[in-house]
Amino acid sequence: MQKSSLITDGNKARKKQSPIDITNEITDQDSMLKASKLQFSYTIGDLKTIEVTGEGFSCKTDNGCTSELTASHLPDVYKLWEFHAHWGTEKDCGSEHLINGKGFSAEVKQ
């Protein structure tokens, strides 16, 4: 896995967050992430809304959600609030973000 080492002030207003192209030039290899354990714990009933579109889906919880995400390389436990996915009709056009200029068939984001 890689983590981004790019820090920029060009997005102070947060008006242009996506899409981005994650390139080798702006990332550093982090060996700690390779062995990282990722765990998602879902509590039945936490999803309050599910919206399905022709190109993806979106799921949301509310403030009482107890579902959480942990990872051995992260300092905290993260509560689930929203996650969504989208896909395309071609194998390289469903993802919103690119890796080294390459698109992918789908993308899931939390």
Task: List descriptors.
mainly beta; disordered N terminus; 3-stranded antiparallel sheet; flat; 4% helix; Carbonic Anhydrase II; zinc ion binding; EC 4.2.1.1; single chain; 1 helix
3D structure, described in words:
- By secondary structure, the protein is mainly beta.
- The protein has a single domain, classed as Carbonic Anhydrase II (Roll), CATH 3.10.200.
- It is 4% helix and 36% strand.
- The protein contains one helix and eleven strands, in the order βββαββββββββ.
- The longest helix is centred in the first third of the chain and has 4 residues, at 31-34.
- It catalyses: hydrogencarbonate + H(+) = CO2 + H2O.
- Its EC number is 4.2.1.1.
- This is carbonic anhydrase.
- Residues 1-110 form the Alpha-carbonic anhydrase domain.
